[in-house]
Design a protein that fits this description.
- By secondary structure, this protein is of the alpha/beta class.
- The chain folds into two domains: 201 residues, Formyl transferase, N-terminal domain (Rossmann fold); 101 residues, Formyl transferase, C-terminal domain (Methionyl-tRNA Fmet Formyltransferase, Chain A, domain 2).
- Helix content is 26%, strand content 28%.
- The protein is built from eight helices and 17 strands.
- The strands form four sheets. The protein has a seven-stranded mixed beta sheet with strand order 5-2-1-6-7-9-10. Strands 12, 13, 14, 15, 16 and 17 form a six-stranded antiparallel beta sheet that branches. Strands 3-4 form a two-stranded antiparallel sheet.
- A hairpin with a 4-residue loop joins strand 15 and strand 16.
- Helix 1 packs parallel to helix 2 and helix 1 packs parallel to helix 6.
- The longest helix has 25 residues.
- The radius of gyration is 23 Å and the shape is elongated.
């Protein structure tokens, strides 16, 4: 089929490769180049870079305004059968939804209607979900409100991070989408409305979301650490017995079900032995991988050697 793909982030790379290999990729719709990194250099979206390698002749569109009549005319001239979106980052207006001959499909990295919105992968880990997956839905005007076509589940590992889950869902997405497109082509694709009783929402992650409040239970902080790994990195200030305070990003930790009430949350104890613990509101954390301000990621043991 003739496919117009809309995507920006690298999670969609495997899907774009599949579409370029198995269908007629007639165009790429992606975000404009943005400043990135410490030097704020203008950087192309991951999908733009990839499509230039896979299919250099594919037209690339990077509009700020999806309602621009000139853009809509250019996309209509491509005569797409289906538009597929995956981590595009913009709300698609009605005029664009009506453009493809068959339909518009969205690939979403959760089991809808759970975790609609911008950060479904982080939301799954934060909530302590035991499963996640890929959902293929028919696009509608609302945010992830469309009818469902197909979903595929996977079980979360006990130590799942946003990084590992993103990789697993990215690998799962092409096969799920392939099946959905085949069903559309054969005219047998189902359509199920989302159950409103099970709707939850996720918002775009900011640095404030990654702040570690040590007064919370260790099990919740562990989820936060894993949800913010690799970006933006959960961050908090730890207190040494000398009352010295150091701010760290924490990328890995283990929950230790200790019951000590005489120490302030955020305080380090047992520094004289091999397993120093960071006290929390309930239980403690054994820190494994950290990053001090202005430094590189390292083991907590290596960090202690330089600071204690």
């Amino acid at each position: 089929m003739r496919i117009l793909f809309a995507g920006t982030n690298s999670i969609g790379e495997a899907v774009l490769r599949m579409l370029a290999a198995e269908h007629d990729l007639v165009g790429l719709l992606t975000q404009p180049d943005r400043p990135a990194g410490r030097r704020r250099e203008l950087t192309a979206p991951a999908m733009k870079t990839l499509v230039r390698t896979l299919a250099p002749a594919t037209p690339i569109f990077q509009p700020e305004n999806l309602r621009d009549p000139a853009l809509l005319a250019s996309l209509e001239a491509l005569h797409p059968d289906v538009m597929v979106t995956f981590s595009y980052g913009k709300i698609v207006p009605p005029a664009l939804l009506a453009l493809p001959r068959i339909t518009c499909l969205n690939v979403h990295a959760s089991l809808l209607p759970r975790h609609r919105g911008a950060s479904p992968i982080q939301a799954s880990i934060l909530a302590g979900d035991q499963e996640s997956g890929i959902t293929i839905m028919y696009m509608a005007e609302g945010l992830d409100t469309g009818d469902l076509l197909l979903s595929q589940k996977l079980l979360l590992d006990l130590r799942e991070t946003t990084g590992t889950l993103t990789e697993r869902l990215s690998a799962m997405a092409p096969e799920t989408l392939r099946e959905a497109l085949l069903q559309l082509e054969q005219g047998v694709a189902p359509r199920f409305p989302q159950n409103q009783d099970f709707v939850t929402h996720s918002h775009r992650i900011t640095r404030a979301d990654a702040a570690l409040d040590w007064s919370r239970p260790a099990i919740e902080l562990d989820r936060l650490i894993r949800a913010m790994n690799p970006k933006p990195g959960a961050h908090g200030t730890i207190i040494f017995p000398s009352e010295k305070k150091v701010t760290l990003k924490v990328f890995s930790a283990q929950v230790m079900p200790v019951q000590i009430t005489s120490c302030l949350p955020g305080a380090l104890i047992n520094l004289e032995i091999k397993q120093p613990l960071l006290m929390c509101g309930e239980g403690a954390l054994l820190l494994e991988e950290v990053q001090p301000e202005g430094g590189s990621r390292m083991s907590f043991e290596a960090f202690l050697r330089g600071h204690y």
